[in-house]
Amino acid sequence: MSVIIILTEGGSEYGYGHISRCCALYTEAINQGISCVIYVAGDADISEEYCWNRLEWRTLSELKTISFEKEDVVIDSYHATIEICEFIVKKSENTLFIDDDMRINYPSPCTVLNPSLYAEKKLYPKKKDVKYLLGIQYALVRPAFCSKIQQRDRRGVMITMGGSDVADITYSLYKELKWCLPKLPVKIILGHGFKNKDRFLRLKYNYSEIIENASAEEMRETMLSCEAAFSAGGQTLYELLTTQTPMIVFKVADNQSDGMNALLDLGIIKKIYHPKDVKAAAHDFIKGNTLTPPLLVDGKGAKNVLRSWLS
Question: 213: alpha, beta or left, given left = phi > 0 and alpha = psi -120 to 50?
């Protein structure tokens, strides 16, 4: 029986996007009858529906505790060293590196996956025994976002700033929106890594809803119910594209620049916002400065990845 080992990272400071897309790949593999296990470096928690373990696999001593017997291996990491990557390639049958920004010169033989809007513009080095899977057709979204959507009446907004909101945007944005439009329905997504959750749970405004540790199904329903989403520029953008939800996007990490510029070029957003631009973002929404995106992500990315990688 085929086995896939997924090595990723995430926690209170970063990485829930890595975990989300790895879970999407995990689920598709299981649906295809492939056994799968996820190893997570960091303090992130994953739902019990997945077979997973917490392990600092980015150190060689810990990595060697995994029993490699020529399994297929997926690595989704911003921090794994070239030495770690070389060790994995030597031990695995087929190796897939998920890469967003040409982070390192990946060892061969391997497959490199960049599922972003801008991937095909990246000048990846041509190497013998390195296959590239580039482009939005490989976007990894969770199963809840893979079924055909039915548009409905949308009211209000959602605020979703990733698993931990590292730039601390959510609270000030919420207050600004409520100052301007007290009756605006606002749904706040609080991720696993959020700090100071109590300040949100104490909010007494009407027309507000706090959703903690939202499941994929809850995220999808929230997106489809809202006329716009205020979002960080990470993995959530691809799920917003499946629901064609207008978005106002904040850049909270340097590696988000290419993806956000692609959204600008495609006319999906009008502007890139930074954490200091909370007031401007709120007022631009009030002025109607949002656009309905085309249906660019069809939910078949995980199927496309497994077929192209393992064929």
Answer: left
